[in-house]
Design brief:
two-stranded parallel sheet, 48% helix, Tyrosyl-Transfer RNA Synthetase, 7 helices, two-stranded antiparallel sheet
């Protein structure tokens, strides 16, 4: 947990990583896909496998932690995150309201999403604009997106529109999958759950 042995810690700080590790085995997870901040717990789970004779160790997939569209991390505000089951309208609305100060790359969720989602998946980012606004621009390096944003050659609204389009393209196969049959029933069940504080 990033603390020294001499630090005072509460019981919950000791139990929480143990419970996270136990979750991996209770769920019989083959792949643990969590944020980089959870890497230590994932590695604890892998190390547990050897002395206790577990045949398979879980595969660890760690990814950067992304701020919510509001610029903050929130596990309870459904408007602060984009979910796999969000509609195109949901995504467009959330990205439109996202924190994106012109020229500021710090705490900018739109740029983080371009860097860690769009560029990682597609290797490119297309911004479509009218000719009088600079015309279309295809970015093949994230650094170029950031440089144009800092210099104000890339306007926040153009960034948001292009980001919404890219995220919606990523989510469309998921939406198609959950339209009918058993997947539709499962989606209805998942949507019935509400996060609590």
């Amino acid at each position: 947990m990033g603390r020294e042995e001499s630090d005072l810690v509460s019981a919950s700080q000791i139990f929480y990583p143990c419970m996270q590790c136990a979750d991996i085995f209770f769920l019989e997870a083959d792949i643990c896909q969590l944020g980089e901040d959870q890497r230590e717990v994932n590695m604890l789970a892998r190390e547990y496998c050897v002395p206790f004779g577990r045949k398979f160790s879980p595969i660890i997939l760690s990814h950067p932690m992304l701020a919510g569209v509001t610029g903050e991390l929130s596990k309870t505000d459904p408007n602060a995150a984009i979910f796999m089951e969000d509609t195109e309208t949901d995504v467009n609305t959330k990205i439109k309201k996202a924190c994106c100060v012109p020229g500021d790359v710090t705490k900018n969720p739109c740029l983080e999403y371009v860097k860690h989602l769009v560029m990682e998946k597609d290797g490119k980012f297309l911004v479509e604009r009218k000719e009088e606004n600079g015309g279309n621009k295809l970015y093949e390096k994230y650094q170029d997106v950031e440089a144009d944003f800092i210099s104000l050659a890339l306007h926040p609204l153009d960034l948001k529109i292009a980001l919404s389009k890219a995220i919606n393209a990523m989510l469309q196969p998921v939406r198609d999958h959950f339209k009918t049959g058993q997947p539709a029933v499962l989606l209805k069940q998942v949507k019935s759950y509400r996060a609590t504080k």
